[in-house]
UniProtKB/TrEMBL annotation:
One of its GO terms (biological process) is lipopolysaccharide biosynthetic process. It is a multi-pass membrane protein. Keywords: Cell membrane, Glycosyltransferase, Membrane, Transferase, Transmembrane, Transmembrane helix. InterPro entries: LipidA_mod_glycosyltrf_83, RgtA/B/C-like. The keyword Repressor does not apply. Residues 66-225 form the Glycosyltransferase RgtA/B/C/D-like domain. The chain crosses the membrane at residues 20-37, 121-149, 161-194, 206-225, 264-281, 293-311, 317-335, 347-367. This is Dolichyl-phosphate-mannose-protein mannosyltransferase. One of its GO terms (molecular function) is pentosyltransferase activity.
Amino acid sequence: MTSPATPTQPSPPLPETTHLRIALAWVIGLTTLRLFANALTGLELYGDEAQYWTWAQTLDLGYFTKPPLIAWIIAATTSVCGDAEACVRASSPLLHAGTALALYGLGRSVADSRVAMWSALIWITLPSIAFSSLIVSTDVPLLFCWALAATGYRRLLDTRAWRWAVVAGLAIGVGMLAKYAMAYAFLGIALHLVVSPRDRWILRDLRGLLVLALALLILSPNLYWNAANHFATVAHLGDNTNLGADPSQKFRISKALQFLGEQAGVFGPIPFAILAWRLIAWIRGRASDTEKFLLAIALPPLAVITFQAFLSRANANWAATAYPTATVLVALWLVGQAPRWMRYATLVPHVVACLAFAVVVAVWPTLRIPLTDRGFSRMAGWEKVAEAARPDILTNPDLPVLMTDRIAMASLLYYMRDQLGVGDLQPGKRPVYVWDWNRQPEHHYELAVPYDPEKTDRALMITEWETPAAILDHFEATEQVRVISITSYGRTRRLEVWLVSGFKGWE
């Protein structure tokens, strides 16, 4: 006689420590892989990265286009391992790892360790994070601070502990030193308090005041720098919005739709679709309180920048702060409501993409994939340009160098860092100045080291201008030394080298 079959028992849930170990294994593993990829790659610094490195050579409380945190971070990493490209970029994979762990903490606060684990896994495997780990940019510390601020704010609301008010305030303040987009956090908090009456106690509590006071205290040195420099960074933000553009390029729905399409690429198609789905659920009154909190923190940057795209233009990364809490929202839905296969349908393509990207970065250009040349070409060629210009610089040791282009200046400062320095801010180095054609600063070098004929009216000029006559006309004597033309992976960089002397005046 056959005995009856024993019913299959569901497998017990994994303990919390296991979820944490899995998250740590993925975060540490991918971070290590990215650090090795950056160390092995042949990709050079592109212009903005080189500019941030030059900022790190003359630390300040602010810079023309950005607050100072990126320069401080680069100064820290390069002081440990040197000025090689991998050291300049070392903070990016490390900070993304920190963001993933902060999102683990947020997921644990709003749900449980399973949601926390999936939050960390989704973030660390996003293709956009794989790309962002390759470069050093202001978005990376911003996202870390955003995730930490959201976690601290949620824990403050739940526990009313003073230490979480300190965490939230410090994270927001330091995030503002990374990028002023951190201010969207206050819009997110305001939206959350509108839809969550039970949390409005913080408006009347000293803990809420502490969050604001700490944030402003940390930001205040940069505000002082701006006040002393005619609010250069704030003015640059206004220029970035491009609201003075031609009317035919404004108020275009197509640009807003294009921007939203780009966001699906930034966050991943499935996570972005889930984000849109849960937003619709909120509008229809079917979102949980937890989902409302996560959406409230995520939506302001996405909504504001989408409107900015409609008004004029917007870069895809400008709404990046929408995605830390959106990641936890996606994990919450995948774990709590979606069929199990959807978790892996979301994660596996991202894992494959980020692993492939790390391998491509590590082996390029030894092993080249044709599709990558176009994207990577802006991160190659400047070292050859610097070597081509080196003989002229060395054979004219008594002349300062006069540059006319921000990217070229930053790149030569980096790839000739043994010889060149930013103006007279780096004693012992050959001073490099920039030609400020209208004597109205439009980037950091024009603010910090514009060409001053009272210091010297002789210089070795290196310019990317195709027709430099507008500059040469200001000098009595001009002599072309050479034309440098370097083609690297389909991109040609052309510079002219001139000896100029006898400055005649600005008019």
